[in-house]
């Protein structure tokens, strides 16, 4: 069962659009921001609120790599692996992240602090190689600066 405050927000999103189903991405983002991932039980709740079949909501979550149904962490690092970031050195960013965090994509650090996710273009190609920590945007410069960025997240 979703917490009352989250449930209220989802209902507000659903009522904002002419068709409830148009609120699906907004609702899923809201759930993910709340829990750090998308728990199974939340899919049913979202489906009910939007008056959609459960498998429709599951398909949307599976389609977009921005949605994460796996193990949660306190912070999610999303690394763009699309072409511009690739050409601008995303491999150096990934190497530095692996060395600093000792995890691979899809994994969570032992202390539950970070989860590393590979995603497609985040629309910030001029900042390539680009990554996000939660909703904060960053351009990768070097391992030392990356370490300084990560130290801001407890
Ligand atoms: Fe990486 Fe667009 S290709 S942000």
Task: Describe what is shown at a glance.
GO terms for molecular function: 2 iron, 2 sulfur cluster binding; metal ion binding; NADH dehydrogenase activity. This protein is an alpha+beta fold and 154 residues long.
How would you characterize the overall build of this protein?
With about 150 residues, the protein is α+β, with helices and mostly antiparallel strands. The protein folds into 2 domains: about 5-65, Arc Repressor Mutant, subunit A; about 75-150, 3-Layer(aba) Sandwich (Glutaredoxin), CATH 3.40.30. The chain is built from 7 helices and 4 strands. It has a 4-stranded mixed beta sheet with strand order 2-1-3-4, with helices on one face. A hairpin with a 2-residue loop joins strand 3 and strand 4 (about 135-140). Helix 3 packs across helix 4 (about 55-65). The radius of gyration is 17 Å and the shape is elongated. The structure holds FE2/S2 (inorganic) cluster.
